[in-house]
Amino acid sequence: MINNQKILLVGEAPGRLGLTRPPLYGRTRQLIMNAAGISENEFDRLFATTNLFTSWQGGDEHGDYFSLYKARPHASNILDNSTHQTIVLVGLRTATAFGLKVTTNQCFKWFKMKHRQVAVMPHTSGRNRWWNSHVNREVAAKFMHELVQLAINQKSQSKGKAK
Fold first, then answer.
1. Would residue 61 be called left, alpha or beta, if left means φ above 0 and alpha means ψ between -120 and 50 degrees?
2. How many domains does the structure of the chain reveal?
3. pLDDT tens for each residue of 69-89
4. Residue 2: inside a domain, yes or no?
5. What integer is the mean pLDDT of 82-101?
């Protein structure tokens, strides 16, 4: 079971080579850790990760196939069964599967969904050029630093309740 004291990061699916790796591994994890200024151990301590799909969804040399029709039930299942109070959706397609119609300009803003805080961040694939801009990386870093602080606060509040 995923630790509900952590903030849940939800991605689309494993990449072509990522079937044996944890969700949101590789480039995604590295970009998040760099933006937040945290180590891999800190990442694992503060965040839980999952994907909408457990296997690579195929595709051609230009990217992966993503079926919103197939993704929506997985997103609904996460919302209905997760005990996480804070969820970050990685990518606009992931957000759309959760029923959020957002643009890149609405990334890093909080929405309420089923009594949870939900935010969206741009997808971290190499095809998404959003991350190439220094200004955009600064926006992401500010959000990720705030997210790390939120995760630390949630963990300390949880420990206080357990005593």
1. alpha
2. 1
3. 889 999 999 999 999 999 999
4. no
5. 94
CA distance 84 to 75: 14
Assess whether pLDDT exceeds 60 at residue 142: yes
pLDDT beyond 70 at 146: yes
pLDDT the model gives residue 1: 39
What pLDDT, on the 0 to 100 scale, is given for residue 59?
63
Report whether 119 contacts 108 (CB < 8 A).
yes
Tokens representing residue 102 in the block: 């957002």
Pairing between β-strand 110-113 and β-strand 116-121 as defined by DSSP bridges:
antiparallel
Dihedral sign, Cα of residue 137, residue 143, residue 149, residue 154: negative
Q: Cβ distance 95 to 52 under 8 Å?
A: no
Q: Are 104 and 133 in contact (CB under 8 A)?
A: no
Q: What is the DSSP string of 24-88?
A: T-THHHHHHHHHHT--HHHHHHHEEEEES-SS---EETTEE---HHHHHHHHHHHHHH---SEEE
Q: Which CATH number fits the domain that encloses residue 63?
A: 3.40.470.10
pLDDT recorded at residue 148? 94
Q: Is 137 within the bounds of a domain?
A: yes
* Residue 87 CB neighbours (<10 A): 23
